Amino acid sequence: MIAYFTASIVGKKYHIDKYRRIVDLLKSKGVNVVDEHILEVSEKDIQLQSREKRLAFHEQLEDWVNSADFLVAETSFPSISVGYEISMALDRGKPVLILYSEGDPPALFAYHENEKIVCEQYTLESLPAIITDFLHFVRGEADTRFTFFISSKQASYLAKQGKKYRVPKSVYLRQLIDQDARKTK
Question: 172: closest CA among 161, 183, 184?
């Protein structure tokens, strides 16, 4: 499997250890990770590039996203470029894991109604389990899609609860099922 990793270049000065940890965990699970454009490039390197080199890099970026099986984004430090890359991956039908270690989730994607998006707050301790679960999801080993109709009243309640608990509606429903399953054991 191939993962495209992205994160803020400017945010590297604050989060480089987290970036490396994410990439190392993916690699330890047998995933090939495209990460050099983040881990090995500085903000100054980008600023000094000619227009032609920036255009060529953009073409390379599109090739990387197109060839990846999924995208992993560390979003603790805001970045318009990272948002663009997430949108590009979603447009191509790629699953996306959005990670953030502090603050609020990225507003544009945290509550987005797309089942290809998984948005998770993490600590270095919780990161291995999050990545393992996401890889199961990507490989189709964990989840079964289940679609059903609900009334507008139920939909309204579900939306309200999702906002209240700051989780997608599907996550809220899964949590309810898990709670009920624990009660019946």
Answer: 161
Model pLDDT for residues 43-54, shown as the tens digit of each residue:
666 666 678 887
Which string of DSSP letters, residue by residue, matches the chain? -EEEEEE-STTHHHHHHHHHHHHHHHHHTT-EEE-HHHHT--HHHHHTS-HHHHHHHHHHHHHHHHH-SEEEEE-SS--HHHHHHHHHHHHTT--EEEEESSSSPPHHHHT-S-TTEEEEE--TTTHHHHHHHHHHHHHTSS---------HHHHHHHHHHHHHHTS-HHHHHHHHHHHHHHHT-
pLDDT tens per residue, range 107-147 = 777 666 677 888 888 999 999 999 998 998 888 765 555 66
What are the backbone angles phi and psi of residue 117, rounded to the nearest 5°?
-100, 130
The CATH number that domain 2-144 falls under is 3.40.50.450
Domain boundaries, the chain: 2-144, 146-185
Q: Indicate the pTM of the whole model.
A: 0.73
> Under a CB-based contact definition with an 8 Å cutoff, are residues 107 and 83 in contact?
no
For 91-127, the DSSP string reads: HTT--EEEEESSSSPPHHHHT-S-TTEEEEE--TTTH
